[in-house]
Design brief:
The complex is a heterodimer. Chain A is mostly helical. Chain A is 73% helix and 7% strand. The longest helix of chain A is centred in the C-terminal third of the chain and has 31 residues. Among the domains of chain B are: 260 residues, no CATH class; 76 residues, no CATH class; 58 residues, no CATH class. The two termini of chain B are 57 Å apart. The chains are: A mainly alpha, B mainly alpha.
Chain lengths: 141, 764
């Protein structure tokens, strides 16, 4: 894939912004439109953009972890957020919230942790598919 | 209690950790587990023998009435002690039998899971919990039969056993559910208190058939017996443990356990009697042609299982007494004989009795064990097998009408059992020494100590039967029949008819053994016809199912994506159209309401994009068209105040376009493949789907939807879910379990896509 200089330079600046934005979407999801699913997709599109401009190998290096590990950790985070209640003696997935309000993030609770799990899982899935498709295509070229 | 029942599962998890130290350490230390379970249950002996019953309950799913209810009476105790005792011997034995095998730890994992499941089956008082343990025994049996999974015959036999017992398990579940509907409780001890309700139920016939399908398949009763001889593919310790001493008796256990509720019905008794007797005789006769040590033992196990079923069917006090004694005796001597067969196989390298002879000088200890177990099995005084056989004969003779016929059948079957025993227990040791694939020598300590202990127990229980068995059988709550038995167990009953019959049986059996060559010629003249064998029908159904599945797959999943879409669209929209046509009329449609300028513009763009996508000459143009459709729909979501949906749709559309772009590089240029008729067909299907959707939307917007859930979620979102975004609170809190399921599916789908792509790469 021929990469354009403009796209490359723009992506380098856009990537952190989009990632920040995706995290912002994840956090605001509880009270306003957003959430882990959308956040994950947005973050995935950031890396997809990077893959298009710089090539898949660089995008994979930038991500550092294997997307499959992202999927696994997402699932584990989501599951453990539900198990928290079990160890507290109540039903699976019963929600718990902290009393203390953190600056910027607000109250932390198990549903938020669940949403973070969803975020990583969706990011992992989208990237797994995009990377494997793009890898093949690079090989063909 | 829960700890000791589940100890095997805990062990299974710990085995890989202990293995890290060394395999040898693992195989020496692990027999402690079954031994501790044995002592735990043995500690209840006096309590139970005094007529007490132990009940312990742990709640699991109380809202469904499914709990870990454990119930120990005489019957459970006998089974639990057999399971853990034979387990200890087998654990010890396997350490030596599989010495140096890299799969040793795997063996201990499987067998520990099995042991716990089996203990669970015989101690559960809850039908559902029992069922779960029951299925776990089938699964662990599958893993153990297929232990040598590189061998095709092992895999075949493992699958056969799983399919037959699994099918029975499904029937059993149906029977249990019907029983629950009838009695309103899952508690077996409660159900046993209401035989009148059970027998009077309109489902009674079905309950009996379903439950017996489950128990007959598990305990390999005729006509489901064929899986058991095939299961001999398993390593010998497994055959000794699962396929003679314990698992195949799970069905027998369940029939005995449910007997108080069903025992008064003629249907139940007659079915048990008929199928039990048939299995007893049929299996004994079939054993005649076998030359494999383990197969011979398998057929004699089948015969004994038939006898046990028959005894429950007779159901008299004497029969129940015979049942318990025979059960104990059989587990002791048959487990031993299997282990002896394993020793012979291990030391000589063959299990073919034609090749085995004269091992007495080389393997004296093994010979003593084999002879002791064989004498017990033949029913020779003073071993426990003698007491067992005597009582069986007595209880058969007691039957009023067909007792005389039944005794002849029983003697015939037992004659073959004596024959088998002579073949397995004596033949390899006496006569002239023959050369074998391996140079035989005495088995190591761990392999003979366990069988020796079992054989000695048979002797002790025989001589002192009045001491150990008497109390357990007469004063404990056996739970098989409602009254307590009051028949003393003795070794010596004097010279009576039973003793005479026992002697005749042994003589006949030995006659058969010495005249074997002569009878074999006689049998060979009848070549067995294949369609009388039940395994032939198993194979027929098995092959039939596979080819039917292949046919259907080739028709529906023919590999053309466009055909899948066609099928999906046609099915979905035909169903929708049918519903619309039946339940709604066009009069209900309300096309009123105002339309804003934005909507008109968006609709216009939508139509243009669709047309572009359909008529595009290149893939890229088509993708752009589709993307346009997606974005317009997202805008519609925004207009109808669904920002979450709109955002998701936007991101999904973006990613989809990226994916498409990545994929289209690989596709060849657009070519015209489809004929005009095909295109017309596709247009018709597409228009049909579109029009149906159109009317569906019209009808939905015309009907007022009232939902309590909607109001509940809106009202509770902030107070309970601490969030103002109702959609998100539903996703991550109220219905988080659904979301968890969905993301799991997503993860599995992603792994599927990934592996498909990687596999393709490898092929190239």
């Amino acid at each position: 894939m021929r990469s354009s200089l403009i796209l490359c330079t723009a992506t380098r600046f856009l990537l952190p912004i989009i990632l920040m934005f995706s995290f912002f979407i994840l956090l605001r999801g509880h009270n306003e439109p957003g959430g882990g699913f959308i956040g994950g997709l947005v973050a995935a599109s950031a890396f997809a953009l990077y893959a298009i401009s710089h090539g898949v190998t660089y995008a994979q290096q930038l991500l550092k972890v294997n997307p499959i590990n992202l999927i696994a950790s997402g699932l584990i985070i989501a599951l453990s957020s539900g198990l928290f209640a079990v160890f507290n003696g109540s039903n699976f997935m019963q929600g718990y919230w902290s009393e203390f309000k953190f600056p910027v993030i607000g109250k932390i609770g198990t549903p938020l942790i669940f949403d973070i799990g969803v975020y990583f899982l969706v990011l992992g899935i989208a990237l797994l598919i995009i990377f494997s498709l793009a890898e093949e295509e690079e090989e063909i070229q | 209690m829960l700890f000791f029942v589940l100890l095997g599962f805990i062990t299974a998890v710990l085995v890989p950790l202990i293995k890290k130290i060394s395999d040898n350490f693992l195989s020496w230390i692990i027999p402690i587990i079954p031994a501790s379970i044995f002592f735990y249950f043995a500690s209840f002996y006096y309590q139970i023998a005094d007529g007490e019953v132990i009940k312990v309950s742990y709640s699991w799913i109380p809202s469904l009435g499914i709990n870990f209810d454990f119930y120990i009476d005489g019957l459970s105790l006998v089974f639990a002690m057999i399971i853990s005792l034979v387990g200890t011997v087998v654990y010890l034995y396997a350490g030596s039998y599989l010495k140096g095998d890299t799969r040793l730890s795997k063996f201990y994992i499987y067998i520990s899971i099995f042991m716990s499941s089996m203990i669970g089956v015989v101690t559960s008082d809850n039908l559902m919990t029992l069922f779960i343990f029951w299925e776990l025994t089938s699964i662990s049996s599958y893993l153990l039969i297929g232990f040598n999974h590189e061998k095709e015959s092992s895999r075949y036999s493992a699958l056969q056993a799983l399919l037959v017992t699994g099918l029975g398990g499904l029937a059993l579940l149906a029977g249990f559910i019907l029983l629950y509907i009838t009695t309103g409780t899952w508690d077996i001890s409660e159900i046993n208190k209401m035989p009148a309700e059970v027998i009077g139920s309109s489902y009674f016939f079905l309950i009996v058939i379903f439950i017996l399908l489950g128990t007959f398949t598990k305990s390999a009763q005729f006509p489901f017996h064929f899986w058991l001889p095939n299961a001999m593919e398993a390593p010998t310790p497994v055959s000794a443990y699962l396929h003679s001493a314990t698992m195949v008796k799970a069905g027998i256990y369940l029939m005995a356990r449910l007997n108080p509720a069903f025992g008064n019905s003629i249907l139940w008794n007659d079915l048990l009697l008929v199928f039990g007797t048939a299995t007893m005789l049929f299996a004994a006769v079939l054993s005649f042609k076998q030359t494999d040590l383990k197969k011979l033992l398998a057929y004699s196990t089948l015969s004994v299982l038939g006898t046990l079923t028959m005894l429950i069917g007779i159901g008299s006090d004497l029969a129940i007494k015979a049942f318990i004694i025979y059960l104990i005796a059989h587990s002791l001597y048959k487990g031993t004989l299997f282990l002896v067969a394993g020793i012979i196989d291990h030391e000589t390298g063959t299990r073919n009795i034609e090749k085995l002879s004269g091992l007495r000088k080389l393997m004296p200890i093994t010979m003593i064990i084999a002879v002791a177990a064989s004498l017990s099995k033949m029913g020779i005084i003073p071993l426990v097998g003698f007491v067992g056989k005597e009582t069986v004969y007595a209880s058969v003779l007691e039957l009023p009408i067909f007792g005389n016929y039944l005794i002849v059948i029983t003697i015939l079957a037992n004659m073959f059992v004596v024959y088998i025993t002579a073949m397995v227990g004596f033949r390899p040791f006496f006569g002239k020494l023959k050369s074998t694939p391996k140079n035989p020598h005495e088995a190591p300590f761990r392999m003979w100590s366990g069988p020796m202990f079992l054989a000695l127990s048979g002797l002790v229980l025989g001589i002192f039967s009045s001491l150990f068995l008497n109390k357990l059988i007469n004063s404990s709550e056996l739970g098989i029949i409602s009254e307590r038995l009051n028949i003393p167990v003795k070794l010596w009953h004097g010279f009576n008819l039973e003793l005479l019959l026992s002697t005749i049986t042994v003589l006949l059996g030995l006659f058969l053994y010495f005249k074997r060559e002569y009878f074999l010629k006689f049998v060979a003249s009848f070549s067995s016809v294949k369609f009388v064998q039940p395994s032939y029908y198993y194979q027929f159904i098995f092959d039939g199912t596979l080819s039917l599945a292949k046919y259907i797959t080739s028709k529906i999943q023919n590999g053309y994506l466009r055909f899948y879409i066609l099928v999906i669209l046609l099915t979905t929209f035909s169903l929708i159209a049918y519903t619309l046509h039946t339940f709604y009329s066009f009069n209900e449609i309300n096309i009123g309401g105002s339309v804003s300028v934005y909507e008109v513009i968006l609709a216009f763009i939508l139509i243009i994009s669709t047309l572009l996508a359909v008529s595009a000459k290149s893939r890229l143009a088509a993708i752009v068209g589709l993307g346009g459709v997606g974005y317009v729909i997202a805008l519609f979501f925004l207009i109808y105040s669904a920002p979450d949906l709109a955002m998701t749709q936007f991101s999904i559309e973006t990613l989809t376009v990226i994916l498409f772009v990545l994929v289209i590089y690989k596709l060849p240029k657009y070519l015209s493949f489809s004929s005009t008729t095909r295109r017309i067909r596709d247009i018709i299907v597409a228009s049909f789907a579109g029009l149906t959707m159109f009317f569906l939307v019209l009808v939905i917007s015309g009907t007022s939807l009232t939902s309590e859930l909607k109001e509940y979620f809106i009202a509770e979102s902030y107070p309970s879910g601490k969030g103002l975004n109702v959609v998100n609170v539903i996703l991550v809190d109220f219905r988080a379990l659904d979301t968890l399921g969905e993301i799991t599916v997503l993860a599995v789908a992603a792994i599927g896509v990934y592996s498909l792509l990687k596999l393709r790469k490898k092929d190239n």
